[in-house]
Amino acid sequence: MSNLEQTLSIIKPDAVERNLEVEIKEMFKNKGFQILKEKKIQIEKSEAEKFYKVHETKPFYNDLCDYLSSGPIVVMILQKENAVKENRELMGATNPKDADDGTIRKKYGISIDKNSVHGSDSAYNAQIEIQFFFND
Ligand code: IDP
Ligand code: MG
Fold first, then answer.
1. Where are the chain's structural domains?
2. Which fold has domain 4-133?
3. Candidate list 12, 25, 80, 118, residue with the active-site label
4. Ligand 1 centroid to 66 CA: how many Å?
């Protein structure tokens, strides 16, 4: 059965800073993702804290929120069949060291914290995250 989904993708500050925006978008397009909406923004730390609230008890939460708000990011709504899972596969493991060949994090990730991209982890969270950034 068809399962056309949307998911939220973020090109994180480390990748925007290295001018990898075009290359990363090409990787999405080559895998058949449609970029429905996109914008380049910089968010406040308070917004990063809201976005990453699920991680608020983790030891890396404060650094993570500092980092996401440290420079410009590109937020995108991606659409494809099974977009959530397909995007997680294309991104690769959270730690670039563990990421498979051909994934974005393997190719461009620097470290577990500077891992170049974010992607929603479920269809439910995708809707929440899309609303968070594209609430018009
Ligand atoms: P994900 O981005 O692959 O979904 P999550 O577990 O949701 O990974 O963690 C969110 C983000 O928090 C990661 O992308 C990474 O930037 C950061 N992070 C996760 N685990 C660690 C850690 O152990 N140390 C530092 N940063 C981490
Ligand atoms: Mg996650």
1. 4-133
2. Alpha-Beta Plaits (3.30.70)
3. 118
4. 13
